[in-house]
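Thread: "does anyone have the structure for this chain?"

Original post by V.I.:
We have the sequence but no experimental structure in hand. Need at least a predicted one for the grant figures.
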Amino acid sequence: MLSQVGDVVYREWKQHGRAYDAEELNDLLDRSGADALITEHDQVTAAVIHAHPRLNFIGVCRGTPSNVDLDAAREHGIPVFHTPARNAQAVAEMFLANVISLMRKTIPSREWLTHRHWNDGAHTSYLEFKGAELAGKTIGMVGFGAVAQRIAGMVKGFPCTIQYYDPYVAPPDAGYRRTTLEAVFATSDVVSIHLPVTPETMGMIDKRLIGRMQPHAIFVNTARASVVNRDDLIDAIENHRIGGAVLDVFNAEPPDEKDYRLIDHPLVLATPHTAGATYEVEDHHVDILNKKILDWAHGSVSHH
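Reply from O.Q.:
Generated one for you, tokens below.
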């Protein structure tokens, strides 16, 4: 598609084995004589941008362009395009899969089965692994962007009640209730975090809020670990103050000792930052970015 705009030089970072660092990226841009750059994880530092001030645009196949020095790009008037919502479907499906798996005790029941614990008592498993249905529950979202709205669209048919806290988003559907942050924690059966990392959100989810959760309620974080006070979450889990947690993000990646206190806990279903890892996400970010670049090329798009 981009051949409509110009010649494309392709250097896949996956074949490189890792993202290109600033020095390697500088070298690639120099050798290719590129007029524009499309990246995913590579280090587009201020030094790289200052060395290539005539780039026509920088495209970033990510939900946020966090690997690009935006101030340097702005200084040189280089538009930066990125792909918000590229993984909304992937994360929403993982939310559903793992929340239901935790509520239905899927993993411990499978372990019970594979460890040959099914003896003579025909009803032992039925009693030990009886879980809860998602239908009829209230799901509270902290942040109501693309991922949260995709989840809401999926679960409303269970049916579930959807409520959310987000001062920037008006209710996109008459069935969704916008409420206070405190009410989301106090009155939801599932509390799901969908916050970006900003100076205001760092550590925002703390014991004041987690302490309001109902004893059976489940805490879900597929966003960023740094918006949650980890010690307060550990305290709530280890003292069985909440029903459990579904976690895909951690303060340290790879995890440190404290993270493993959460990961190893039987009330937690943890995954290694894979909620957005589907083959289709790459198709989605291609579609989003190509459209932005082609619109820009035809003079019909503004940029951040």
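V.I.: this helps a lot. Residues 88-270 form a domain with the Rossmann fold fold (CATH 3.40.50.720).
O.Q.: and The longest strand covers residues 138-142.
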